[in-house]
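Appendix B: complex inputs.
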Amino acid sequence: MLSDSKQPIYIQIINDLKKQMASGKLCPGDKLLPVRDMALNYKVNPNTIQRSYQELERDGIITVQRGVGSFVTDDDSAIKEMKYQLGRIALEHFFDEMSSIGYNVKEIVYMVNEEGGKLNA
Amino acid sequence: MLSDSKQPIYIQIINDLKKQMASGKLCPGDKLLPVRDMALNYKVNPNTIQRSYQELERDGIITVQRGVGSFVTDDDSAIKEMKYQLGRIALEHFFDEMSSIGYNVKEIVYMVNEEGGKLNA
Amino acid sequence: MLSDSKQPIYIQIINDLKKQMASGKLCPGDKLLPVRDMALNYKVNPNTIQRSYQELERDGIITVQRGVGSFVTDDDSAIKEMKYQLGRIALEHFFDEMSSIGYNVKEIVYMVNEEGGKLNA
Amino acid sequence: MLSDSKQPIYIQIINDLKKQMASGKLCPGDKLLPVRDMALNYKVNPNTIQRSYQELERDGIITVQRGVGSFVTDDDSAIKEMKYQLGRIALEHFFDEMSSIGYNVKEIVYMVNEEGGKLNA
DNA sequence: GTGGTCTAGACCACA
DNA sequence: GTGGTCTAGACCACA
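Resulting structure:
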C-alpha cells in the first residue's frame, strides 16, 4: 500500500491519509480506524501509526480524543487548504521534473492540454 | 544528486544520465566520463557505473568502445524518443498523483495552464 | 479536582480540604460531608477518605465524633496557623522554582509587584 | 533528578533542560550531550531523550545536526523569551495557588516583599 | 560517532 | 475500548 520512497513510513502514512481526506474517501468528522487497527491495515507497528496521528493532529487535520478515538477535523476549509497544498507540491514537482528532462514551460503546458483532451474524449 | 527513491542506485544513475542527454547537457557524440571518474562523481563503486553504462548501451542510448571510451549515440532520433518517453512517464505520474489527491482532469489542466501563465509572465 | 502530582490520593484530598478551610469555604464548626458522600464527591474509595479524615484529626484541624459526624475545629487559631503554613510552603516553592529558572530574589520581587499591580488595577 | 509529577518523562526532561538554558547552565551554542549519554544521565531510554530533543528543536530552542550533535540555539532572544515564559507560568501558578489558599493579591504581594527582604538581608 | 526510524511489547489514563 | 508513554533493542543515514 505504501510507496517505494525513502521517506519514513510514518510520513508516507500521513501523506496517504491526507490524500484520502483530500479526495473525499475520508470526510470531515469521519472516525479514523483505531491506532491498532490502522496498524494492522498498513502492516506496521502501532507506535508508527501513533506518530502519524500525532503529526496530523498537530497540523489540525485530525482531532484525537483520548479514550474515544481519532476523527477527521470538522473544519472543511482546513481540508481544502491541505488539498490545495498537496496539489501545489505535485504541480511544482512535475514542472521541475519536466524541466530537468529538457521541456520548457510552453511545451509542458502543451503536453498537458493534449493529454487532458485525450483523457476527456 | 540522486533522488530519494528506493530504486537501485544504478537505475537512478541511468535516469540522471538520460535526463542530461534529453536536456542537452550531454549531446549526441559527446564522450562520457570514464567509469572511474563517473564513479567519483556519483560517489559510488565503479562497478555500479559499469552496470549503468551497460544498460544504456543495451538501450542504444550510448556506445561503449573498449579501450577508447563511452559516447552518447549519434542517433538524434533515439535521443528524442528517449526524451519523449521520459516526458510521458512524468506526465502520467503527475496525472495519477493529482487524481489520487482528488483533482479531476479538467482541474488538473486548469491548474497547469494557470501555473504556466504565471511562470511565463 | 485533584492535582497532577504523584502524591498519594489521601494526601491530595487532605490538602484540598485544608485549602477549603484556609480560604473560608469551610468554616470552624462546619460539618464535613460523611465519609461515603465525600468519597462519591472525590470519586475514590471511602477508605481513602477515612484515612484523610484521620490525618486531619491527628493534626487537630477537624474533630471526628463517632456516630455524629466530622467537624472543622472550632479553634480559629489552629486554622490560621494551618493557612500560614500552606502559604509558606507555596511561597518557598515559588522562590525555589523561580531561582531554578534563573531569576534572582530582586527580579522575583519585582515581577510579583508588577503582577500584583496589574491584577489590582 | 526528575520531579514527582504525573507529566510524561519526556516533558519533564524538556522542562529541566529549558531551566538549564534559562539559568545559564547551558549557553547559546553549547553542545548538548548525545542522545545516548543524556539517556544514561537521566536513566531513561534513548528514545525518550530523542523525543525531548525533537520537541525542543520544533520549538526552536535547540538545533539538531544529524550525525554531528545537538546544540542550544544561537538565538539569544529565543532563550530569553523562553525564560520569560517559564517565569510567567511559575508566577501565575503561584498566584493561583495562594488564591486557592485564601490569600488576596495584596497579601500575596506583601508576603513576597517580606520574604524578599529577608532573603536579601 | 550521532541522530532517526521502527518493531515488539508492556503498562497506564480516560471514558 | 482507545489513545499515550516508555523500554529494549535493532538497524539505518549522514559525516
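Chain B has two domains: 9-74, 77-120.
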